[in-house]
Task: inverse folding
């Protein structure tokens, strides 16, 4: 299987007036700088916000805000901006929901310190990548794991996988979607290990 | 950031992430991926930054999942090597009748042409099983000549790399010549690599002797034990000790894999370039020094570049036949 290189097909979404940063740079930045913060970001949100079911939504809102800001200029460093945005969104939600940010207040203060630390460095992550991936991979349901290997490593088509495993092609697709979605959650929920 | 209303109206992030993943999996099925579908995807991505970001997030994990090759228990593949496939054939024959092997086997070291040359192209591999049961695996871009006239078993590694698993016979020692160095088997599995400036011999099992006949100062010799790696250059013959585990990683090319541990991007690129016409080029020293570990398919440099992009954050550009990596 050949993955499509970035042909710029995603560009159309991304050049509102005044956008100064290319999609290619935005994507590289998002993957390199923002996604690795997801673990500490969601952890912070969980501490600060009483409704766990909202965490993914807030996280996504943070991404969108930070992204829109980066379209004008890529922030450097990224981490303080991400947490500042998270904080603003939380304060706003507290207001709208008229609830007192009990945990939130304390953590918002602590946050100022946390945001000053440099974000995880991809070099460090690369070394732990395999351990992390192995753990995540091993937690996948066995069938999804098998299908993922046949697709991702052996580059079989869905039809070939279906035939080999004696299951429907659509089931193969569902396994792939399920495995990739779970992996994304597990890989990004990973806490950067302190050396 | 003046307005604080959430931007994602359809705040069902789980649903967006599911859709993004479905798109990604659909696109991974390259055969069925039509321009129409691409346009449809473009429309979906353009509908909201939330869509785009969810897609990138899924894509990142998909790319990283390519590393699962590292810990997958590799079963022997049905046709892992282009070219000969003698070993598989031999196994099949052995199951039927041992006698057949003698006649069906390669009749090296007996009558026939004075010498026989085997070669592999860049990216190719070949296995040769000799009449005595010894086995030679040729790696990428390799030329090996078997001298049939010699009374002793003798082959010459003209260039490239080969793995030898030799049926030991003290009456008829097996020797490999490489750029003026002679390696003599003393009950052995070993690799020899003949690159431009040096000959490298790594001993996996048993023992072997290396004689450097290339110098005018008389032969230099060394007796190798498992884990020993002899490096013969114009100036010296040196022996270093490597953990056997590392040697086995170095032999993973026989399964079509490259295994890196604490390897710099520059070293990894050089390894890939031995196997592929499409070359990896690293443009700046900072990128060249980045370290990585992992297992990769030797013939899939683009997959490696994608990993470097996704995991190490380097930029990847295709320029002509080159894949250029830079900051």
Result:
């Amino acid at each position: 299987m050949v993955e499509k290189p970035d042909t710029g097909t995603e560009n159309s979404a991304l050049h509102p007036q005044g956008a100064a940063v290319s999609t290619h740079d935005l994507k590289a930045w998002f993957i390199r700088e923002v996604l690795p913060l997801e673990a500490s970001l969601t952890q912070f949100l969980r501490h600060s916000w009483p409704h766990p079911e909202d965490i993914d939504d807030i996280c996504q809102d943070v991404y969108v805000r930070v992204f829109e800001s980066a379209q004008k200029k890529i922030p450097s460093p990224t981490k303080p901006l991400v947490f500042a945005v998270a904080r603003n969104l939380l304060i706003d939600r507290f207001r709208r929901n008229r609830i007192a940010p009990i945990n939130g207040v304390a953590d918002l203060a602590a946050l100022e310190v946390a945001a000053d630390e440099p974000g995880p460095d991809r070099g460090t992550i690369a070394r732990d990548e395999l351990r992390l991936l192995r753990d995540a991979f091993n937690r996948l349901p066995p069938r999804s794991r098998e299908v993922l290997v046949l697709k991702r490593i052996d580059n079989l088509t869905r039809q070939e996988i279906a035939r080999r495993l004696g299951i429907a092609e659509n089931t193969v697709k569902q396994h792939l979607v399920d495995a990739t979605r779970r992996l994304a959650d597990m890989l990004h929920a990973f806490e950067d290990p302190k050396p | 950031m003046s307005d604080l209303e959430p931007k994602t109206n359809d705040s069902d992030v789980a649903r967006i992430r599911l859709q993004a993943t479905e798109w990604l999996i659909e696109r991974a099925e390259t055969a069925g991926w039509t321009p129409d579908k691409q346009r449809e995807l473009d429309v979906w991505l353009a509908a909201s930054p939330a869509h785009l970001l969810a897609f990138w997030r899924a894509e990142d994990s998909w790319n990283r999942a390519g590393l699962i090759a590292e810990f997958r228990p590799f079963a022997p593949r049905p046709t892992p090597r282009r070219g000969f496939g003698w070993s598989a054939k031999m196994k099949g024959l052995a199951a039927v009748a041992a006698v057949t092997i003698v006649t069906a086997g390669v009749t090296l070291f007996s009558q026939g042409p004075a010498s026989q040359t085997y070669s592999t192209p860049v990216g190719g591999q070949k296995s040769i099983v000799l009449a005595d049961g010894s086995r030679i695996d040729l790696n990428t871009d390799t030329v090996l000549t078997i001298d049939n006239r010699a009374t002793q078993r003798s082959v010459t590694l003209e260039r490239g790399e080969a793995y030898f698993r030799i049926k030991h016979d003290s009456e008829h020692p097996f020797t490999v010549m490489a750029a003026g160095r002679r390696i003599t088997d003393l009950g052995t599995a070993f690799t020899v690599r003949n690159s431009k400036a040096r000959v490298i011999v790594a001993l996996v099992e048993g023992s072997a002797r290396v004689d450097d006949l290339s110098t005018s100062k008389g032969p230099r010799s060394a007796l190798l034990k498992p884990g020993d790696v002899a490096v013969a250059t114009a100036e010296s013959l040196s022996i270093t000790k490597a953990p056997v585990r590392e040697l086995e990683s170095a032999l993973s090319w026989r399964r079509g894999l490259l295994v890196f541990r604490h390897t710099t991007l520059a070293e990894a690129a050089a390894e890939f370039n031995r196997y592929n016409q499409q070359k990896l080029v690293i443009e700046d020293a900072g990128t060249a020094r980045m370290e990585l570990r992992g297992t990769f398919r030797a013939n899939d440099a683009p997959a490696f570049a994608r990993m470097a992009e996704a995991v190490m954050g380097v930029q990847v550009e295709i320029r002509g036949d080159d894949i250029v990596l830079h900051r």
